[in-house]
Amino acid sequence: QVQLVESGGGLVQAGGSLRLSCAASGRTFSTYAMGWFRQAPGKERDFVAAISGRSRTLYYKDSVKGRFTISRDNAKNTVYLQMNSLKPEDTAVYYCAADPRNFVASIYSDYDYWGQGTQVTVSS
After folding, report:
1. How far apart are CA 59 and CA 52, in angstroms?
2. Contact 49, 36 (CB under 8 A)
3. In this model, does residue 44 exceed pLDDT 90?
């Protein structure tokens, strides 16, 4: 069982930056692929970015490429999402997720474990 806890969300003006963190429990964190998803009110949960266990493979949603960066520190059991040049359409609850098969995927059903989410609000 893996427990995930996100932090770092908040209110920011358009053009600003936030860094989300997701702390994971367990001793096998480095073997898991990790993903970030987001869900806006009334919309489905949407893929944002993913990273393989040893950071060799990164994958981004097209609309965040060049603005968001996913990274991880396996010594700290933590994955990050650095978000720059934020836009109002980035407003959502952001979730991190873990895949023990280390498969870097964009489909939420591929992930076995989820955090509780952190709210990101970007004002115009």
Report:
1. 9
2. yes
3. yes
Q: What is the pLDDT of residue 26?
A: 81
d(CA 20, CA 28): 21
Q: Where residue 119 falls among pLDDT bands split at 50, 70, 90?
A: very high
Residues above pLDDT 90, as percent of the chain: 94
Tokens 């393989």 locate to: 52
Residue 106 and residue 59 in contact, taking contact as beta carbons nearer than 8 Å? yes
Q: What DSSP letter does each residue of the chain carry, written as one string? A: ---EEEE--EEEETT--EEEEEEE-SS-GGGSEEEEEEE-TTS--EEEEEE-TTS--EEE-GGGTTTEEEEEEGGGTEEEEEE-S--GGG-EEEEEEEETT----S-GGG--EE---EEEEEE-
Structural tokens at position 7: 């932090």
**Quick one: average pLDDT of 12-39?**
96
